[in-house]
Amino acid sequence: MPKGRYSLHDPHDHTPLAEEHFHCAPGPHGWRYVAQLTNPAPENDHLGSVDLTLDDLGRPLRLELHSGGWQVRGGALDGVTWVRTDPTGEEATEGTVAAHAFTGNSPAFLVATARLLRLTTTSPPTRVRLVSFTGQALAPRTLDQQWALRSSETHATDNGPLTVDEYLVGDVETGEQHTVHLAGDVILSARGIELEDLETPPTRFTD
């Protein structure tokens, strides 16, 4: 069960935004990722949380996000469906979009999209529609991305062979592109994300 810490920063000016303390593992339904977000050290104040469960096909069975008093709960149902609750807890708004999955600032969403698409190096660039929740208010936004697996290389490590996949991810609307380096269910690096600490090796998905 991988356990570790990511640092999240602004992809433009590299301002530190948060630290994400996570653990993840395959489970009876597919894969689950749980994380707590804090201010960068030394403050380490609690900022929010992420809880994402995927099924065997990489679809979001259950999503729960907390940030700035806001809460989002969602899952795959006729596309993706969610309920967003305000900080007072007095109002809740529902949403449903014909999309494939969710995305956001957490590295969990990059792992989830890669699991959903299951690309190979011979696969053509693949377009995917996602609902994004970002910022303290977790406001929803629908966007289209294009994913391509550029390379897949296996490296020898003390814990056995480690396969690292390099994806090229593009925003269809803006044309902006960035790379994602993924090993099993752990993001090694991506735009705005750095893996700072990993206590146990990544899970090696077999399919």
From TrEMBL:
UniProt superkingdom: Bacteria
Listed name of the protein: Uncharacterized protein
Protein's organism: Streptomyces fungicidicus
